[in-house]
Write a structure and sequence with these properties.
Layout (H helix, E strand, L loop, with lengths): L1 E3 L3 H12 L8 E6 L6 H10 L4 E3 L13 E6 L4 H16 L3 E6 L2 E2 L4 H9 L5 E10 L7 E3 L2 E3 L8 E3 L6 E3 L7 E5 H7 L11 H11 L3 E12 L11 H18 L2 H24 L3 H15 L11
Helix pairs in contact: 7-8, 7-9, 8-9
Amino acid sequence: MILNWNQCAETLACVESVLSLEGSDWAAIVVDNGSTEPLLEPLRELLHARRVPFQVLDGGRRKAPASGALAALRLPENRGYAGGNNAGIEAALEWGFDWIMVVNNDVRLPPDSLQRLLAVARDSADVGLVGCRVLARPEFGEREQYGGGRLLYALGVYLLWRWKGRSGVHDVNFVPGCAFLARAAALAQVGLLDERYYLYSEDIELSHRLLEHGWRLLVDLDAHVWHGFSVSLGGRRTPLYYYYVTRNTLLFIKERLQGMTRLLSRLAFLAQMAAHCVQWLATGRRDLVRATWRGFQDYRRQRYGPVLSKV
């Protein structure tokens, strides 16, 4: 499934890569997350030209798309990454699919990517999520964004112990949300993405929750996708990014970590953000300082979901 929010060109390019996937045992759904930019007609034109069956879903009983077909679901409002993806995941669960692949609309899929991840996932009944190597798209420098590793939860959550030069399939404690394959039974058991997060860190929370319930997380470093860089927000170094990361990381630490790990993680994360704020003040980025402080305040006040006023 693909989530769109006011990025029609990005979404159409992503759909093009989906249509090139090997095999025919898949169907796709595009969730339009309350966009103001038109999507359905350009999408219909693209699929008509490619002779791909297409349907627009309504709020009632929804018929599952056939293999190789695509459906679109338009939400009346922007429900964020978590809520928008959940709408598509809920439809896939309703239709009885065994596997659900979630990709950001700025991701491009190589033709063999889905079949590679399915082969890994089907090899063991306790696999809940499978990820892959993530490379920046050529226009973003084609560097490696994710090549496996382990999140160091006790050091503030966002520090990743990166692996170098590895290949093959490995167990991990986190799978990036830009592209992952999920076992439907695992999501049905542990629940979907936490919509309080709205944007950022919900992939970390879901990964941790699956591990708590005994599901394995794997990464296949012989498979890859190409990814943009927070295209919908215009890049990562934005006030909104730091607002959500501050608020949501503190929420994750409070609810999912335990004992000394929780204490060390909270102290480490707050120290890291304080150091960032000092650097931003020295370089004139007071907007990022304000956003970080606002995220901390809203965490303390338990204000979750979308931010309700300008950051």
